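> example.struct
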């Protein structure tokens, strides 16, 4: 992706900067997740051609604290204003699931070239399709923060599977308490382990 996006003036913006962007008030799980996100963002500060230039949060205090941590001078409480005023190449969307689709679509229409959005993708199938279709139409790279598949234990398990060291994969069982929280990580890992083989049929129920 870096090569595709390489430019003279690469700007990176972010919106929704709650517990993922700030340490205060975060529980252990979220702190762990936050470190992932920050470790993901840190390299953007180290890349000579990539700069974290702006952030937006409806809670100004959150935006301000994030900006201080990352040395950002331009903060917004309205992400649409940020999209209008800034020339952003990449944005990271870290808000609640029901907001993802509209924010992705707005960012894509504002000319952003790559969008990294928090999981789960959206709160409905229709919203998930809309955001994917709009990015496809506009040639925008859209990715989601299912970072676990890049983690060492999961990579090791996949390598053992691929080598045949632990036999043939016949069945995957997953379980989670909340699909709209960490549940989509587990679904993503199932896809990772089965080499993204599309489902032939699905039967499902959510309480
Ligand atoms: N990948 C992971 O491991 C991981 C871990 C934790 C959370 N998440 C995901 O991150 C997302 C956010 O979760 P969280 O726990 O950080 O929530 P949070 O409540 O801590 O933070 C959300 C932030 O979004 C801001 N916000 C709300 N509406 C906004 C708007 N219209 N414009 C700009 N900012 C707005 C809020 O003020 C808040 O600061 C969720 O989709 C969650 O599933 C992912």
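> example.seq
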């Amino acid at each position: 992706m870096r090569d595709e996006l390489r430019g003279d003036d690469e700007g990176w913006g972010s919106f929704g900067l709650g517990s993922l962007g700030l340490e205060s008030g975060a529980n252990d799980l979220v702190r762990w997740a936050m470190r992932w996100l920050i470790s993901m963002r840190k390299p953007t500060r180290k890349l000579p051609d990539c700069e974290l230039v702006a952030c937006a949060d409806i809670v100004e205090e959150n935006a301000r604290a994030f900006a201080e941590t990352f040395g950002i001078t331009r903060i917004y409480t309205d992400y649409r204003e940020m999209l209008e005023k800034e020339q952003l190449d990449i944005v990271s969307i870290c808000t609640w699931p029901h907001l993802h689709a509209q924010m992705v679509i707005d960012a894509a229409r504002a000319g952003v070239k790559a969008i990294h959005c928090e999981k789960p993708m959206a709160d409905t199938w229709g919203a998930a399709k809309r955001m994917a279709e709009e990015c496809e139409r506009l040639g925008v790279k859209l990715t989601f923060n299912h970072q676990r598949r890049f983690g060492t234990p999961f990579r090791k398990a996949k390598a053992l599977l691929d080598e045949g060291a632990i036999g043939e994969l016949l069945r995957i069982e997953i379980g989670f308490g909340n699909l709209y929280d960490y549940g989509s990580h587990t679904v993503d890992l199932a896809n990772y382990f089965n080499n993204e083989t599309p489902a032939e049929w699905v039967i499902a129920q959510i309480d």
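> remarks
The chain has two domains: 2-145, 148-193.
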